[in-house]
Structure formats: C-alpha cells, structure tokens
C-alpha cells in the first residue's frame, strides 16, 4: 500500500535534518587543521563511522530502512544546505572554542 503524501513529506523533512546532522559530524571532526597526517586520517575514519551510524540510526527511526529516491535526495539537500548556510558559522565557533581550550593567543 502506498504511503500518504503527509507521511512522505514527514520522511523527507526528517531525512533533511538527518543530512544536517551528518554535516555537523563532519565539521566537528575537521575543525582542527593543525594535525599530523595520521591524526587527520584517524579523525576521518572516526567521523565516517560516526556519520554512518547516525545515518543508519536515523533511517531506522524515520522510515524503518525503507529507502526511496526522496530519502537520498533529502539527505543530500540537507548536507548541501548545511554546508552553504550554517557550516561557516559553526566552524568559526569551533575555532574559537579551540583557541580557548588550547590557550592560543593568536
């Protein structure tokens, strides 16, 4: 039986915010640019695992792993909108937090 339009819109908006969450996970792990190469690789590996876990858990709670074309579209739209709107502000905030925590006087 096909889903109602309101159910599909609800799934779309939920997956859109799931894309936002994935963008936040990636930005949270890449805010520190002064890292050794191996440390950056480890952080990339950890962020990839964490974002995959966020996606799997989110898809389980949103639509019980039912993957439709609009699921991928909404996650991609969420990541795109996050990267072009909130990401610069969030990265600036993380840089300030990094400065305070590491006591840099730059």
Q: Features of this protein?
A:
106 residues; 0% strand; mainly alpha
How many domains in all? 1
Helix content: over 70%
Strand content: under 5%
Count of DSSP-assigned helices? 4
User: Quick check: average pLDDT?
Assistant: 78
State the distance separating the first and last CA atoms.
61 Å
Topology, number of strands: 0
Structure explained in plain terms:
The protein is mainly α and 106 residues long. The protein has one domain (5-102). Helices cover 80% and strands 0% of the residues. It has four helices and no strands. Helix 1 (5-29) packs antiparallel against helix 2 (37-63) and helix 1 (5-29) packs across helix 3. The longest helix has 27 residues, at 37-63. It is elongated, with a radius of gyration of 17 Å. The mean pLDDT is 78.
